[in-house]
Amino acid sequence: SSTMAKSKFEYVRNFETDDTCLRNCYIVVRLDGRNFHKFAEQHNFTKPNDNRALGLMTRSACSVMEELEDIIIAYGQSDEFSFVFKRTSNWFKRRASKFMTHVASQFSSSYVFYWKEFFGEQPLLYPPGFDGRVVLYPSNRNLRDYLSWRQADCHINNLYNTVFWTLVQRGGLTPAQAQERLKGTFAADKNEILFSEFDINYNNESLLHRKGTALIWEKQDETVTKRMKLPNEEEKDVQVTRSRKKVQAYHCDIIGDQFWEEHPDILED
Ligand code: ATP
Ligand code: ATP
Ligand code: MG
Ligand code: MG
Ligand code: MG
Ligand code: MG
Q1: N or C: which end of the chain has fewer CB within 10 A?
Q2: What distance in Å separates the CA atoms of residue 187 and residue 176, rounded to the nearest whole number?
Q3: Could you tell me the pLDDT band of residue 253, with boundaries at 50, 70 and 90?
Q4: Looking at the domain assignment, is residue 217 inside a domain?
Q5: Which ligand 1 atom lies nearest to the CA of residue 80?
């Protein structure tokens, strides 16, 4: 019978390996766009920062937070986004491959689904992809250091890209000349080039570009009008206020203590 045939074949399931994430750890999934250097060129991204692309990344990350379970914070910059699951999550029995693939596919399909909302007339020329990885962090300090590391990366890259493209777009240098000019320079040198040659104070550049995007859940009071039936069969509009969780975006420093003190519910103890 087919039932017997099925049991005959079923042993192959035992070839699946256990990828349960260690208990008590924060589960972080980081996605990164595949070959986005080329993707950015082919889709005419503004240099150094295309706000349509950043908006689409953030929209896609919101979809991941809303559709999947147990995400407490997400942080994104450039073509990457990190998603942090609460340490007590038991979603899919903590199987790493389930977390990674659900995040990557929900994000990728959202990126395509919402493309037009952000890029309008610019057509999507081919299906983009994102790689994913899972990393476990056992302490709040480790998790905060992870997020600090990504934000520091955002800062370093954005400072470099800002000077590089200013030298090219306003200084008339070729990309090769700009690269040569910046070889071996420190952050202070880059700030100085921007300030003395182009009258740009890097600290006044947009927070979105300098700090990236942190997404967290926030309670919001929502007032809706409900039609209520009165006992005497009459209908009446009544204002009902309830508190709902909504994803909120922040473009601020997450390295120091202030952000975490202002949002003490994000991290569990
Ligand atoms: P890999 O597949 O190894 O990740 P990659 O080409 O995606 O290769 P990354 O190091 O991930 O390399 O860099 C992403 C690149 O995508 C940036 O260097 C930049 O050129 C481009 N990019 C991503 N987001 C934006 C944006 N919002 N505005 C402009 N350019 C962007
Ligand atoms: P999970 O998220 O756990 O995978 P699921 O609802 O996707 O839940 P599956 O066991 O994967 O459960 O089953 C997929 C279901 O999708 C099928 O049971 C069927 O109802 C539906 N389905 C998938 N493909 C088709 C198809 N080509 N035609 C009709 N129904 C389909
Ligand atoms: Mg990569
Ligand atoms: Mg990439
Ligand atoms: Mg990247
Ligand atoms: Mg299914």
Answers
A1: C
A2: 20
A3: very high
A4: no
A5: 11
CATH number at residue 23: 3.30.70.3000
- Closest-CA residue, ligand 1 atom 21, reads 37
**pTM summary value:** 0.93
Check: CB of residue 60 under 8 Å from CB of residue 119.
no
In which domain, by residue range, is 81 found?
A: 14-146
Assess if residue 257 is contained within a domain. Answer: no
Does any ligand 1 atom lie closer than 6 A to the CB of residue 54? yes
Task: State ipTM.
Answer: 0.94
pLDDT per residue as tens digits for the range 10-58: 999 999 999 999 999 999 999 999 999 999 999 999 999 999 999 999 9
Tell how far the Cα of 80 is from the centroid of ligand 1, in angstroms.
8
**And the tokens for 174?**
């070729």
* Å from CA of 40 to ligand 4 middle: 10
Number of structural domains the chain divides into: 1
Phi, psi of 21, rounded to the nearest 5 degrees: -75, 140
Q: Is 247 in the pocket of ligand 1 (CB under 6 A)?
A: no
Cα of 23 vs centre of ligand 1, distance in Å, is 34
Torsion of CA 100, 102, 105, 107, to 10 degrees: -90
Angstrom distances, CA of residue 208 to CA of 58, 77, 205, 227: 11, 9, 9, 41
Which atom, in ligand 1's list, is nearest to the CA of 34? 2
